[in-house]
Design a protein that fits this description.
- The chain is of the alpha+beta class.
- The protein is built from 5 helices and 12 strands.
- Helix 2 packs across helix 4 and helix 2 packs across helix 5.
- The longest helix has 20 residues.
- It is globular.
- Bound molecules: biotin.
- The site of biotin (BTN) has 20 residues, from helix 1, strand 3, strand 6 and strand 7.
Amino acid sequence: MYDSCAKTLFCGKKVVYLPTCHSTNDIAAELVRGGKAVEGTIIITDEQTAGRGQHGTRWLTNKGQNFTLSLVLKPTFLHLSEHFLLSQAIALGIRNYLAEFTRNVWIKWPNDLYVNDLKIGGVLIENALQGTRLAYSVVGIGLNINQSHFSTAISDRVTSLRLETGQYLHLAEQLPRLVLAIEKTYLRLRAGQLESLRGEYLQYLLGFGQTRQYIIGEQLVDGTIVGISPDGKLRLELHPGEIREFDIKEIKWQWVD
Ligand code: BTN
């Protein structure tokens, strides 16, 4: 059903398609551990029975309508303290793919994809270490492409490319385009183009340089995102000159409709 990607260097040369599985991230990790997944291997499915999101959440998506895949990477050039650089490159690659279809594509820190303040995709990266370096990373991607109805039980802040553009997209035709966009930013990371990746990430970071409302603890506060720390924490200016760093569990976005 899915062909090997023709235009990439190594990503998507091997594509493992499973009509159904528990989680493509788990399958990918099993394949790497069994020595059966070279770098760039993609595991893609129509349906996950135990799809996982960030922070122990479930990833639910309609069967066969969206991208549900994992990409195996071996970023052995990264120290574990640099894990955010991978997250940044992947989010940017997906953003660049989505921007081929629609405007207003943003990255919500650290690596959620948003269009018009609605979530269109998410990334779950699971790293394995060798000593203090990354040995391999399973990059799990859920991207809403053709789904046109979402249960409000999941979230009311969700969209898909179809809802944004009215276009139906053939997943098998789209996979090589998505993978090429991701490989491009990954290759930039591998080549050490850190400043240009960082600059581009901040350019598309939702809320960067704007005063917005956030929920910290129980409190609603005004803050301005001023950057990301080297270990991937969000830097927020809460009062002039007072910059604090937050990890993902410490801060929530307050949406204003
Ligand atoms: C998020 O919570 O935003 C991250 C969602 C990641 C979902 C993808 S779908 C393919 C891969 N397999 C999983 O079990 N999860 C990721």
